[in-house]
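Run log, item B.
One chain of 286 residues. Sequence copied directly from the ordering sheet:
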Amino acid sequence: MINPSKDKSFSPMELTDQEYMLISRLVYEKSGIKLGDQKRSLIVGRLQKILRQQDFTSFKDYYEWVMKDTTGNALLTLIDRISTNHTFFYRESDHFEYFTSDVLPSIVKRLSEQRRNGIRIWCPGCSTGEEPYTLAMLINQYLGWNMDHWDIGILATDIAESALKAAVQGAYTAENVKNLPGMLAWSHLKINPDGSYTVKENIRKLVTFRRLNLMRKTYPFKGRFQVIFCRNVMIYFDAETRQELVRKLYHCTEPGGFLFIGHAESLGRANDMYEYVKPAIYSRIS
């Protein structure tokens, strides 16, 4: 048996300063993700398998292959590997609690007064789907028997195709769902023989998963959303990219609608499009 530690074929390929600059610049231009020097090991680790499989002798050879690929598939794979997709159910639980206690009731009240029945929510950077599925569970729990009277549309988008494929399956480990309140888990998850969980069909059908690069100039939406959960996405962007993204999110939010961001994120001091509500929760200024 080969010992990986003694076999040079298993040694990580060296990433030179020039190669790191080329790859990090490409990732930034195409996805908005800003890779600092501390991410060098991440690039090496996540791209190593591709380089070995394709018999590249250097990261520069791989970079040139990506640039020459006219199908765009190589670039998609690169972005997919670099994107971070770590998440779990009920992450930053105070957001979901406020959504249930204040945001959802206000939306239902306003729409009822306007004789509208369409609840529209967008989760950009949805990763493997825990966030939009949680929102679908909370809506189902709140509306109860009145669900049939409402047109629920939750759009969940991400740039990583592998994450979206996992999200569509709706299957999760016990570790992944351990923070989900018991009643939500019991009502909306099916436990499998191996101890894993699958989101029930009535919840999965409320969520539509699509691939979307947030760096595109405009978004292909016909209407606006009452709520946008864009959490832990902007932390990977620089200030200029964040400001441009907030501007685009503003135009996708209904007047009086809500924007949720991550607790480690900020809209910036120059923000004049959203009004502060609570930590990492904002309301669109009409």
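Observations after the first pass:
- The chain has eleven helices and ten strands.
- The chain has a mean pLDDT of 89.
Flagged for discussion on Thursday.
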